Hints:
By secondary structure, the protein is mostly helical. Among the domains are: 108-269 and 388-411, Orthogonal Bundle (Citrate Synthase, domain 1); 273-381, CATH 1.10.230.10. It has 20 helices and 3 strands. It has helices at 4-26, 36-40, 69-75, 87-96, 102-115, 120-128, 135-145, 151-158, 166-192, 206-214, 220-230, 239-248, 254-265, 273-287, 295-307, 325-337, 342-361, 372-381, 390-411, 424-431, and strands at residues 54-57, 61-64, 67-68. Strands 1-2-3 form a 3-stranded antiparallel β-sheet. A hairpin with a 2-residue loop joins strand 2 (61-64) and strand 3. Helix 5 crosses helix 9 (166-192) and helix 7 runs antiparallel to helix 9. The protein is globular and about 65 Å long. It starts with a helix and ends with a helix. The mean pLDDT is 96. The structure holds alpha-fluoro-amidocarboxymethyldethia coenzyme a complex. The site of alpha-fluoro-amidocarboxymethyldethia coenzyme a complex has 19 residues, from loops.
Amino acid sequence: AKRLKDTLYEKIMDWRPRTERLMKEYGNVVVDQVTIGQILGGMRGIKSLVSDISYLDPQEGIRYRGYTLPEVFEKLPKAKGGNMPLVEGLFYLLLTGDMPTEEQAAEVADEFNKRRILPRFIYELIDAMPCCSHPMTIFSTAILTLHRESFFTKKYHAGISKLDYWDPTYEDSLNLLAKLPEIATYTYAKLYRDGKRIQSNPNLDFGGNFAHMMGIGKPYDDVSRMHFIVHADHEAGNVSAHTGHLVASSLSDVYLSISAMVNGLAGPLHGLANQEVLRWLQDLMDKMNGEVPTEDELKQFVWNTLNSGQVIPGFGHAVLRKTDPRYMLQREFSLKNMPEDPLFKVVDMLYNVVPPILLEQGKAKNPWPNVDAQSGVIQWHYGIKEYDFYTVLFGIGRSIGICANIIWDRALGYPLERPKSLTTAILEDFAAGK
Ligand code: FAM
């Protein structure tokens, strides 16, 4: 069978003329216009990026290479002894656009296995981090420190052709992704388990190995696979995806770029939101002395949160206008595997209680739950009670999508990103019609 890298090479050769033609023949076609509101408002909604890895449909939710998430979960090859798809298969899909066979997913698993051993200095680095360092700081620092291993950077200095940049970027990406489960689980062990490390098992897949190194039994392997897959990508404009792309556009290698994207993910408006959900739920459970509240009590708690000027964490979305399919997939899993969990019961009640209240309040453009309303509760159920770690899990998943994006950025020769900035006085001149 054809190797992944050869398949990728063919796809790249087929794709390049499309981008070249758009650039040469249609470079002046207008796609969007920009308002002062958008310039001052976080560039919200400006159509100014391109990615073929994923696309966020306001109604369907995220599509990976054109497939909706339910399709991705149905069609990707499943892990042996599990019900969830292989993360390796997802990476194949994101890279090539083709739904992989079992054999093709196994090839990625093989590649990851060959590359998963961490250099000793990474353990030493994690050991040397000052106490109370946030797990995201450690995760990002470890990735950054691996920069010295970069094949792309070596090749670049040796004088490689621009057309070949994607090749060492691909090698760096596989080398890095293969190591992330071990970096994350060792960070967890160091921070919360007295440094007791569980050796990885070369016979397990990416998600299975992660669960094994966390020391958590079934079905946590499926939880890990599901978590990494639903978090892998959310088109190119969100903070983590955009940061990865921006840093890589200066030809910083994958290690520098992924470390930067992890730092963007670490913010409370992005990856940290799932821990906010759990904090809010814990507060509710404390007020209820650990009992599952009645529907009326829950409604009151929701209104109290809103009336005190806070948002309901885990609800709403900047782009989506329906219940997040990432929420639904995790809900299905929870209904099947942990229906009696008291926190899940509350989450499930909130699913019915919150949207009508947000609609009645009339502010949120999307009153439906998002991915974060569920993910932390599942982690909590399987024993990961250190909220700070949740964003690291998100970071592993997101790295898979961003690496695929960066490989294609180099393959299609996307240039250095350099939008123009203005001053407030210039905007005032525009406002006055000058
Ligand atoms: N609870 C209460 N009010 C909400 C709300 C919620 N869950 N979601 C939106 N609103 C308010 C919002 O604060 C804004 O009020 P003001 O006009 O007073 O500023 C108004 O509704 C319009 O906001 P929007 O256009 O509907 O949402 P945005 O695009 O500005 O923001 C979110 C999107 C996700 C940041 C927002 O819905 C929110 O704060 N949700 C709660 C926090 C959360 O769940 N974040 C996770 C997002 C997740 F998808 C991720 O990126 N990891």
